[in-house]
Amino acid sequence: MNRGKSKDKLKSFFKRCGQDTPPFFKKLRTVGLVVAAAGTAILASPIALPAAVTAIGGYLIVGGSVATAMSQAAVTEDSDCE
Predict the structure, then answer these.
(1) Per-residue pLDDT of the chain (82 residues; tens, 9 = 90+)
(2) Sign of the CA dihedral running 72, 74, 75, 81
(3) What does each C-alpha distance from 73 to 6, 46, 59, 80 come to in angstroms?
(4) Transmembrane region positions (predicted)?
(5) pTM for the model
(6) Which has fewest Cβ within 10 Å: 16, 20, 53, 74?
């Protein structure tokens, strides 16, 4: 695999993350952060919780993190990402 090409793609991704995010994706990013925080609170609770609740907390963290990361990379159509 050509390392130069993969570095260019990574640079393009970080450039996208630095550009302005559309309003819908800003809201989605906030919701993702709240969901991830709720999952973290469930996992970090000082009381013993059933295994199903603990598993749900883990899924909330993953889902919130993915939603936050993907919404941060969204840009408007007229943005130059290259």
Answers:
(1) 566 666 677 777 777 777 788 899 999 999 999 999 999 999 999 999 999 999 999 999 999 999 999 998 888 776 555 5
(2) positive
(3) 17, 35, 21, 13
(4) 33-62
(5) 0.74
(6) 20
